[in-house]
Amino acid sequence: MRHQGQTKIANHYMSMLFLILCEFGLFSYIKPEKFINFL
What is the pLDDT of residues 1-39, one digit of tens each? Predict the structure, then answer.
């Protein structure tokens, strides 16, 4: 049971890292200047 809990925590951190990387990737892909011009 303990191992199952550890994997759950690991999966949670992995998904968090994935979301953060996706956000940074989007921000680097869409340049801030382009975003401001779009607005």
Answer: 567 888 898 899 999 999 888 887 777 766 666 666 665
∠ CA 14-30-11, nearest 5°, is 5
Round to whole Å and give the CA distance between 13 and 35: 29
Note the pLDDT of residue 4: 80
Range of 17's domain?
Answer: 2-38
The count of domains in the chain is 1
